[in-house]
Amino acid sequence: DADVTQTPRNRITKTGKRIMLECSQTKGHDRMYWYRQDPGLGLQLIYYSFDVKDINKGEISDGYSVSRQAQAKFSLSLESAIPNQTALYFCATSGQGTDNEQFFGPGTRLTVL
Amino acid sequence: RKEVEQDPGPFNVPEGATVAFNCTYSNSASQSFFWYRQDCRKEPKLLMSVYSSGNEDGRFTAQLNRASQYISLLIRDSKLSDSATYLCVVSPGDNFNKFYFGSGTKLNVKP
After folding, report:
1. Mean pLDDT, chain B, whole residue set
2. Which of A67, A92, A113, B83 is buried deepest, with most CB atoms within 10 A?
């Protein structure tokens, strides 16, 4: 079984709809992240959480919100989706310290019409 | 200025060639460095961490130059299966575990 899972894997929605993307992990990591990736661009950090009580905005948090329901779960919401939020969304986890590689989920491909 | 910059490529090389990518970073206090590989429409996966003394894993060699603030990835004897996008990732490390990603360098290995 995958260590980091994301649901849904693909979603097509309409402008103005509320969308929730979910992420679960079995790595036991405290740190979780949400990124978006647009074609030809690097990953941009939306939100990150260092533990259940800690939520931080990333570079592009406008239009998004998150919820850390438990150590293993971190969900991303688009309250009112717009077309320029069409992108590939990745959840990731990491441990602490200097050898702190990130482990990514398989991604959610979101299309907003 | 971007935190991490990479040449987007593509680098088109024949099988068996040696190819090298560089990546520059802007924060001199950065502590952790990585190369990730990303196949088309898939999640990034760690290729290797980059250590101060340089490190090698089979055909792959990574090096860090702190003075000039760049890291490099060398791939020897390229295989068709090496075709992918290679992402440079830099982190301040310690308790401030944010990761900054380059936009990636695309490699196409041709028969």
Report:
1. 91
2. A92
